[in-house]
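$ fold --in a.seq
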Amino acid sequence: MKAAAKDVPKFEIPEAMREIAEKNVEQARGAYSQFLDMARKAQDTAAKSTDVVAESARELQARTLRFAQDHVDASFSLAADLARAKDIKDYFDIQARYAQRQMAAYTEQAAELSRLMTEMAHKAPRKK
């Protein structure tokens, strides 16, 4: 016989474990922030060229970097939310919401990158 839903033990994540997870997320976020600062400085250095193709490439690169930052930020947010999950149901609900948001973001970003690449191709000088 199946146990009634009320008879199923509720698995709770201990508070100390959630605190450690949150601290680890914050440390990783700090390291990522330093990496992102270095990437932006490198991008600024590369932004010295002025031709049309280079300008389009910089825009594409900046957009891609922003998308990467958005995804990493979403991942840190997910990790923090998961660290605060009270039980296994809450944990899986958080993951499901994250997956839905990320799929929508991926779809939008793919369309935007496709548009930018098409514009870049139209701006590129034609070889004779």
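$ fold --in b.seq
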Amino acid sequence: MNNMIHEIIKIITLSASLFAAPGAWAIGAIAIDNQLGDDEPAFGVSVGEDDKESAKKAALKYCRQAGGENCQFIVWFETCGAVAVSKKYYGYGYGSTKAKATGDALEMCNNNNCNIVAAECE
């Protein structure tokens, strides 16, 4: 009987820990200001936010802090996000790995002069 109680307590403790995993579903977002004539587009990347709206607001804030005057929310992500820029182009990517996110960002930028300027994972 005593072993049975211990097993039940283990099951309850394990179940509770599965539901209480902090930050397990943190969200990130990307905002970009692709103003024509800028040397490079300003951008902002947020990570570790609790919800989509918080991630969006943080990315827009970071973009403005980087000098962007017309920052636009681009995308939110749950695992990895990346930004590639050149003097005239930008690209973004997201996915389950940093390699996937950066590869997609470079492909979207579609310019040999593009460089990854941010790549973040939760």
